[in-house]
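Structure tokens please, single chain.
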Amino acid sequence: MSQIVFVLEDDTDISRLVQHHLEAAGFSPRVFHTPANLIPDAERQAPALFLLDIMVPGGDGLDVCRRLRNHPALSTIPIIFLTARAGENDRVLGLELGADDYITKPFATRELVARVKAVLRRFERPTSPTVISFEEVIIDANAMQLKVRGELTTTTATEFRLLDYLARHPGRVFSRDHLLDAVWGDARFVTPRSVDVYVRRIREKIEVDAENPRYLKTVRGAGYRFEIPKGE
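Here you go.
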């Protein structure tokens, strides 16, 4: 069965172009010209990925992204922004809200399809269940779920992937560049400092005191190290 991609794009010519090339690549795109029905429809049938324009009538893609990232059932679905807003501040805001890639207009359709595929590859789930559990933290890679102190904790797809990668290599120090390659792959809008944003957000979710982390440590001048307490 082909993967469903929700496309939020108000420009008819662009939406037809995106739809045509996604269909040619084997996807099943659903186009929305306004944000009104996008989330309710996703609740009924979740897509594999959201492709969001930022400036659309009746709202904007940034607000849709924010709402998706706070939605318990939809928060881990990858999001790509497709927008004419190419400023550095716009890209940083997209990252802060939890976007997984950021494509600026005008764009090459082959590159668009390639980056949709690349983002989806990054979030393929393992074929067999794998769970990491220590103290009051449970990381379930198969379900892409994080539980902290018995409570299901909402994460974005990228937050989960970074946490899972670090927790599977306890004691190792990873540079920001290494983590970018391992977690983001060829995403072009992220920088080494983007890792710091995600580390901060992960700490806020798993640590009792995010300012004095017990698990996700900073190694000054080198990067980050994940520590699983002894006895686990």
